[in-house]
Amino acid sequence: MSEQVEKWTVGRLLNWTTExxxxxxxxxxxxxxxxxxxxxxQIKRIELYTNFTSxxxxxxxxxxxxxxxxxGAGEPAAxxxxxxxxxxxxxxxxxxxxxPRPETEQLVLESLDRLKxxxxxxxxxxxxxxxxxxCDVGVGSGAIAxxxxxxxxxxxxxxxxxxxxxxxxxxEVAKANAKSSGxxxxxxxxxxxxxxxxxxxxxxxxxxxxxxxRIEYDGLPVDIKNYEPKLALLAGENGTEIIAKLAPQxxxxxxxxxxxxxxxxxxxxxxxxxILETAGWQNIQILHDDRIVCCEK
Length: 297
Known about the structure:
Blueprint: H1 10-23, H2 29-41, H3 58-72, H4 77-81, E1 83-86, E2 89-92, H5 102-122, E3 133-137, H6 143-151, E4 160-165, H7 168-180, E5 187-191, E6 202-207, E7 212-213, H8 214-218, H9 222-225, E8 234-236, H10 241-253, E9 254-263, H11 269-279, E10 282-287, E11 292-296
Parallel strand pairs: 3-4, 3-6, 4-5, 6-9, 7-8
Antiparallel strand pairs: 1-2, 9-11, 10-11
Helix pairs in contact: 1-2, 2-3, 5-6, 10-11
């Protein structure tokens, strides 16, 4: 009697792939296995567990095998499936934009808190009598600007949002995400090298700028260094070069009483503080394990 061949069920595929990803040093082996299998089967990730004993079709398994091979070689799962959740919002992503990360959600939270201060203190108006203005410098996938737009609905009609990026390809991704999130008409997208091509001034400027030094960049994991856009990561030899340009620009563009917020690397927290002091910023706070900096004019 021939031995019964064990079926490649959803459960078996997940178990095998998780162990394979662990052997490759992947940080989130089970999550990546789930995300890729759900994409191959065209179902939601939670539905994998209601189909745990079912066997995907040969076509689905072939697509999944390709995903697993590419992920094992270093290609990020988010690029393979074309989407990444950020602040409970699905964002389209591709190699033209950084993959949104949980750390950046703290930048959104701090921005929202300061927007609340404006509405509480200014009765939904800034000091020049117009709606509160917010600028996202280096918008990438649109994660910060769109999350702010969607999560501060109480002043949504009076909140003016400008989103900037030097990359036209990144701007196209951000616009597509704004459209799918229903906020395309509420955000003004502009191509600009930092704040070079921007008119007017803002109440809040937020940015997740390039802040990786040359040494840090050379030591980045393969799935970041070989796949995510270098332009959005590498700042220069020291990691502070972009911030050194942005800090005085933002000071000139911010209204009196306004805020400037950035995501940074803990490794450059002290140099960044000195840059901000030199540019004239006040009440400089470095928060969330030295990942977020906030200051005022």
